Amino acid sequence: MSTAAMEFRSFTPSIGPGLASGADARGNYWKQTVQEGRDHPFKQIVGNSASLESVLDQVEQVASTDSTVLIEGETGTGKELIAHAIHNASQRCRRAFIKLNCAAIPLDLLESELFGHEKGAFTGAIARKIGRFEIADKGTLFLDEVSDIPAALQPKLLRVLQEQEFERLGSGHTHQVDVRLVAATNRDLAKMIARSQFRSDLYYRLNVFPIVLPPLRDRREDIPALVTHFVKMFNRRMGKQVDSIPPETMAAFQWHSWPGNIRELQNLVERAVILSQDSVLPNPLPKKRMGPFILSVDRPQAFQSWRTLENSDRGLIVETLERVGWVVGGPRGAAAKLGLKRTTLLAKMRRLGISRPIPQQEADMGGMMPEGIKPEMAASHGFNGF
Predict the structure, then answer these.
(1) Residues 6 or more apart from 296 whose CB is under 8 A from it?
(2) Tens digits of per-residue pLDDT, 132-172?
(3) What does pTM read for this prediction?
(4) 16 belongs to a structural domain
């Protein structure tokens, strides 16, 4: 995959509630969406961590189909950006990408937003309104926060997913549509089903191809690239010339727990650019949140001042090894957690003199490894010694 930054600018504007003409609506929003992202569906996505690469692999696999996709992840992890990528990599990329945040629409208006209404359908309906499903015909409809759809409306959504047909409010005429649905949520729909808050049959229809986005704390190796991207973006917007990021500032970014994920990172970088002086990016986080949490990887960086001290590397490696029981290789090993190849991590461990502390039982046996175990195998399986 090509390098990229999970940012949260969206190149498809929201559709206002006053949109009335079906043909004009589809034409206007087709023009706005078709100009971006056709040839480079992942161009707004930055990072090369294993967890992000896995997500993009799934996007490539499902994009060429018309199957419904359910994107799950914490708030701020980039669910809308991934939905855009699915659309841009699909055969529908020249058609409209229409979005609707179900949590942002009053419950009594959500049905009209989705399916439209006829003039006089209810008090205040002074004109015909085209719903999002009709506007998205031949394109993609992205329903964010799908868990907020009220129970009374869920059967109608299930019907349009199964039959690709619906009626506007106040109309008996059935409309046929060809829409690819991508839904997203930051809630556990399975638990909502257990509490009778979400229909199980709708969940199964949405969950044809689930994609789970990792939180930023699980892809910390992408933070330097993301910070670079946002600094450049705000440099352009604000006319700034921030071109230096001190190691302690980058360490603070990598140490933070990021409960708000990439959205929080973007906002903090914006704050730091505003506060910057003498082209140096300050640390916008409180001092208590700083820590020696940065792993320098042998690859070029945009700002040369990002290099950190070896003790920072050592502290992070030891902490990660202890967390995974001193297992280096495998999908749950320290190398995967740090976004490094197993051989790269072993080389760093040798250079920094890191080895597993010998338990008392092994010390009593003279600290000997089982016969036939090579040092590399010992490290990857939790044995001490190099």
Answers:
(1) 306, 307, 308, 312, 313
(2) 999 999 999 999 999 999 999 999 999 999 999 999 988 88
(3) 0.68
(4) no
Domain match, 251 and 295 both: yes
Which residues span the domain enclosing 188?
A: 22-214
Distances, alpha carbon 253 to alpha carbons 135, 223, 276, 286, 296, in Å: 41, 7, 16, 11, 14
Distance CA 321, CA 255 (A): 17
CA of residue 270 relative to chain centroid, distance: 19
Residues 6+ apart with CB under 8 A from 189: 147, 198, 203, 206, 207
Rounded to 5 degrees, what angle do the CA atoms 159, 160, 164 make? 125
The dihedrals phi and psi of 133, each to the nearest 5 degrees, come to: -60, -40
Question: Within 13 Å and on the Cβ side, how many CA atoms surround 297?
Answer: 20
Show which of 181, 214, 247 is a domain's final residue. Answer: 214
Tokens in use for 180?
């690819």
Residue ending a domain, among 197, 214, 231, is 214
How far apart (Å, rounded) are the C-alpha atoms in residues 253 and 256?
Answer: 6
